[in-house]
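hey team, just a heads up i'm posting the complex here instead of the shared drive bc the drive is being weird again. everything in one block, sequence lines first with there labels, then the predicted structure for the whole assembly after. its two chains so it's a bit long, scroll down
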Amino acid sequence: MLEINTRSSVPVYEQIVAQVRKAVADGSLEPGSPLPTIRQLARDLELNPATVAKAYQVLERDGVLEAAGRRGTFVRGDARPRLDESLRKEAEEQLRHLLARWRARGLEAHDLRKLFDELLAGMEPQESNR
Amino acid sequence: MNAVHFEAVSYALQIASFFLIAGPVMVRTERRHTLALNPPWIASQNGFLQTHGEVALRPFRVATLALLSLLAAAAATSSRQLLFAIHTVLFLAVTLAFYVYYDRTEKHLRSTIPEDPIRRAALSPRTLRAFLPGWALGGLSAAAAILGLNVWGYAARVIEPSRALANATFLILVGVGMGLLLRHTLRRAAYRMSAETDSSGRSLELSLTLSVAAFMALVCLYHSLGSCGPVPLFAYPPTQLHALIENAPWSWAIFFERSEYRWVELGTALVIALFGPWQARSTFNRRIMAADSVKVRSVFEV
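-- predicted structure starts here --
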């Protein structure tokens, strides 16, 4: 089930992209599953079809979805590894940016590594509780 | 109990079932839909639920009492014409009046509720197969086969040509109408509720449309089969459209003069009488009345 908030500061198409990605990542959308047509989704969410089309384009570009002409739009067979890869790249990019910023402000590499390990260790019990 | 009394009882059951069970269930379901449009806003309005939480059902009770009294009076005079007029014209007119009244009331109420910023949609495409069991789709093929039978009967002169043409025209018209209804049910926006109630709502709508289509197809099959045997099953065409194409006499009087039409009418009465319990027992209505009304009420309990 897709849920969007029209009052959110996050653009609606980004909310759709994020939720489809999440559904593919957690397995609620299996590889090869068909997705609703742009028109159907736009009607249900009371949106302009161009907004949904934009979200589908982004997902196609990222390798999550593939359009099969009149047959509709489907989740790609290799969507999950592609998602994992793109998630890893995104995390790497953000971490690189953060590390560079804190290094520039004077923190040493071993301090950052220690902090990172501590934060990860603190998150592990939460993850095991899920 | 004579034949007229028996008919009066069957019509009374039909009216009571329609106005005391199906009607209230349907308008209450619509009200649940309205209240689920924006529960947080409704919760913030003092007295909104007290005023609009339930639909006024008195018109249904008054209409039932009036129509049943008229039926009793008609049965006392043993007038089939009067029974027929109450069962068709008056019953239909009151049903239409209720539809317009409750639809307007609901639309007016919906226009006063602001839009909920949270919107939901299922992430799966809507197809007939997703909402209907396989045998229901078999019914569609059967209706198409009856159309084919009449087209073949016309070409091969097995069925009286004007009758086959009338049946085919009628089935095509009904088919186009029902096809548009099926398409609308699949395409219309989702109910702003759970995916489960949206899905069962569409199943109910599609089943209703297909039931009407199947009934029409059966009438045409009966009409065309009668043409193949030595004695026509329907002495007169079953609809005015048939009569127009077949260039045959037709009047409303055949419904109370000829026994075969009386059986069709009684059959229709039985179907409509079962409509009430069907609506009350349908998964969709039960879920809306139970699960979604709990959802609406939970907002007020916070």
